[in-house]
Amino acid sequence: MSQPHQGDTLQLVAGELAAIGQRLSYLGSVLQTEAANRPQEAPAPPAAPAQPAEPVPAHSPQVAEPRRRFRADLEPSRVLAWVGGGVTLLGVVFLLVLAVQQDWLGPAARVAGGALLAALLIAAGWWVHRKAAEQRVASIALATTGFAAMFLDVVAATALYGYFPVPAGLGIGLVVAIGGLLLSDRWQAQPLAIGVVLGSAICAPMITQGADALLIGFVVLLQVAAAPVQVRQGWGGLALAAGVPSVLAALVGAFWGLAYPNPVLVPAILAAAVLGIVIAAVTAGFRPAAERTAIGLLVAAPTPSFLAGPLLLERAEATATGVGMALLLAAIWAVGRYLPAFADWLPSRFLAAVGAMAVVAAGQATITALDVSSWATGLLCEALLLTVAGHLLRRGGILLGAACYAVFGFFLALGNEVPVDALLWSDDGTGVAGLVAGLLIAVVAVALPTAGVRIGKIASLPKSLPLWASAALALLYGTASATMAACLLVSESRGAFLTGHILITLCWVIFAIALLLRGVRVRHLRIGGLVLTAVSLAKLLLFDLATLDGFARVIAFLCAGLILLTAGVGYARLLSRPSAERPPRNACERRSREA
After folding, report:
1. Per-residue model confidence as pLDDT tens digits over 241-264
2. CB neighbours of 204 closer than 8 A, spacing ≥ 6?
3. How many CB atoms lie within 10 A of CB 384?
4. 391-415: per-residue pLDDT in tens?
5. Fewer Cβ atoms within 10 A, N terminus or C terminus of the chain?
6. How many CB atoms lie within 10 A of CB 404?
7. What is the pTM of this model?
C-alpha cells in the first residue's frame, strides 16, 4: 500500500484544523442560543389571607444587586469559542513552522495557505457579527484568530522566507494590526484588541525563533498600533497587553545579543524604549484615570536600554545612549512642569515618576562612563548639581534625587576613595581622590539639608532628627577624610598622620563652637553643638590619647582646651547680654520685641 504524499498530509491536517474550529464555533453558538431562549422560572407566591396594608417605612433598605462572579464569564460558549480560536492559531503556527522542518509544501504554498485561512476566519467573524448579533463571543473569537493568523503569516513571510524586505514586512504587519484594532474599536470589544495583540506577540517568537531585532520590531508595531485605540477607549488591559510584550522582547534581546551579535539590535531596543516612554506619556495625558498603568509602562520601558548599552556597546556609545535617555526623560519632565500649554496635561505623580526615571538614567550613564574607583566622586558631583538645581527651581523632588545620589555616593566612597582604614593607619593615604571625595561629602552634607529647609516644601524637615544626624555624621566624616588626605599628600610620614588627627579634632571643636554660638537663636543647632562637643571630647580622650605621641598629644589637648575656654567665655557673655541687645531666640521673641 503506497504512502500518502506529503502535500496530501498537509491538506488533511489543515482540513481537520478548520473542521475543529467550525465545530467548536457552531457548538458555542448553539449553547448560547439555548441559554438565551431558556425561560426564566419564577417561584409562585404562596396564598395568604388578605391583611391590612402596613405603612411603608420612609427609608426602605435597597436590595443590593448580586456581584458578578468570575465564573459567569466561564460559560461553555465563551470557553469553547476561545479554545477553538487558540487551537486554530496554533494550527497556523504549525503550518508555517513545522511545515518548514518537514518540507511538506513550498514556501509560497505555506504563506498563501495561512493568508487564505486567516482571511476566511476574518470574513466568518464579520458575517456572524452581522447576521447573529447575539453570537458576539463567536464573532469576536473568529475575528481575533483571523487577524492574529494574518499577522503571524506576515512575520513568517518576512523572517523565514524573505518574501518581503524588512521595511515592507513591518509596514504590512502594522496595517494588519491596525485593521484588527480598528475593528475592535468599532465593535467596542476590548477582548478582540487584547486577543489580536497578545496572540500575535506570544506566537511571533515561535516563528522568528529568537529575540532578534526583527521580533522586537514586530512587537513594537503592535504597541504602536494599539496606542490610539487604548487612548480613545481607555482600555487599561490593552495598554498592558501591548506594553509588557514589548518590554520583555527588548529585555530578552539585550541578553540575546551576547550570543548572537547584531548591529541593529541595540537601535531596535532603544527605539522600543523611546516609543514606550512616549506612549506612556500620551496615555497619562489623555487618560488621567489610567495614571497607574502609564507609570508602570514608563518605569518598565527604558529598563532594557539600561542593560543593552553596557552589555552590547563600547563605553562611549553606552554612555551616549544613557545620556540621551536621561535627556529625553528630563525634557518630558520640564515640558510638563514649566510650559504653560502642558502645565495641566500630565498628572503630577506621572511627572514625579518621569523625574525619578531621569535621575536613574543619569546615574546609569555616570556609572557607565566612569571607572569603579571614580563612581563615588561622579555621583557626589551630580548630587551637588541637583541640590543647586532644586534650590534654584524650588523643587523638592529634585532634592530627593540629590539625596539618593548622595547616599549611594557616600557608601561607594567608603569602599573606594575614603575608606575607614585611611583614618586609622598611617600607611593608607587616599591621595587627591580622597581629598576631593571628602570635600564633596562635606559640602553636600551642608548644602542638601540647607536647601531643603530654605525651599520649605516639607514642614517637618527643620525638626527631622534623622536628617540632621545623618548630615552631621557625613560632615564629620567628610572633613576628617579630606583633612587626613591633605596632610598625607604633603608628607606620607607618621608626623603628617598625627598632624592630620590634631587638625581633625580642632576642626570638630571649631564646628561645635560655631553651632553653639549660632544656637543662641536656633534650638536644634544648639543641641547639635553640644552633641558635637561631646563627640570631639570623646575622640580626644579615647582615640587621640591612645594614638598620638607625646608632643602631638600635648598640642591637641592644649589647643582644644584653649578653644573651648575661649568659646565658653564668649558664650557666657553672649547669654548675659540684656534681652534688647541679645539676638532673639525664636519668632515669638522677635515679634514681642517688635511690638
Report:
1. 999 999 999 999 999 988 888 889
2. 151, 152, 155, 215, 218, 219
3. 19
4. 888 888 888 899 999 999 999 999 8
5. N
6. 18
7. 0.72
